[in-house]
């Protein structure tokens, strides 16, 4: 089955059928991101998508989940996206859930009714990258969305009854804005109130434009323990209804999993203990970190 470029998907979709409906990312301007810089954005034709689905049909009895790639497949116009999801549902009778990346722009282009229609076609989870809750940082990294847009998009997802998963990036504000980045991110996560949230740690890999600032000394990356301080501040400032928060991504120095708010005090105590001990042996080795 042909797939254009490398495959990127959320860790929770590791057992899903990956169906590429778009190539690359429609925004593709974020300065911290390197993953789609080699792809020119396009939406695949229905014929191409149908061919990929047909190729996967022999595995149909085993397919319970599907993930629509690439970077923000929710940008696909509603009529075409509905058709794609109908095709997926028809091909895989045991399908339980479809997942998809979305950004604030792609979500806000749809109405709650549009999203409910997708939910009825088994769209079960939308993954959105908040990255930072600080407006200045979002402007600096050219995210293309404001925190207001992020919160409004989250509210639409909730209104449609779809599960929301939000990612943030430790270290994105550099040493200069480390504290405000963490505090504001926790506060915006509170307003988005996702069912799932995950922290990644910033890894600067060419051709991400932020690499140039780092190499020129204009951007200073927080060290491992400073990133853990950010992690603690984010969790401290999160006031959510019921959220599974994790830092299990391979980029992170300290993998954690916790239900919030129930486990807040216990996990903060654990993180603080690691920070206080300042022992690199307690952290994931650099050689084992990755995107």
Poorly predicted ranges (pLDDT <50, ≥5 residues)?
A: none
Class from helix and strand fractions: alpha/beta
Helicity, in percent? 25-40%
Biggest sheet character: 8 strands, mixed
SSE pattern, N- to C-terminal: EEEHEHEHHEHHEHEHHEEH
Strand content: 15-25%
Rg estimate, integer Å: 19 Å
Strand order of the largest sheet: 1-4-5-6-7-8-9-10
Q: How many strand segments?
A: 10
Helices and strands, with pairings:
Elements (H helix, E strand, L loop, with lengths): L16 E4 L1 E2 L18 E2 L2 H11 L8 E5 L8 H14 L5 E5 L2 H5 L3 H9 L2 E9 L3 H6 L6 H13 L3 E8 L7 H15 L3 E6 L8 H6 L8 H13 L6 E4 L10 E4 L3 H14 L14
Parallel strand pairs: 1-4, 4-5, 5-6, 6-7, 7-8, 8-9
Antiparallel strand pairs: 2-3, 9-10
Helix pairs in contact: 1-2, 6-7, 7-9, 9-10
Short description:
This protein has 291 residues and is of the alpha/beta class.
Question: What this model shows, in words?
Answer:
Strand 7 (163-170), helix 7 and strand 8 (196-201) form a beta-alpha-beta unit. The chain is of the alpha/beta class and 291 residues long. Strands 1-4-5-6-7-8-9-10 form an eight-stranded mixed sheet. The protein has one domain (11-282): Alpha-Beta Barrel (TIM Barrel). It has ten helices and ten strands. The longest helix has 15 residues, at 178-192.
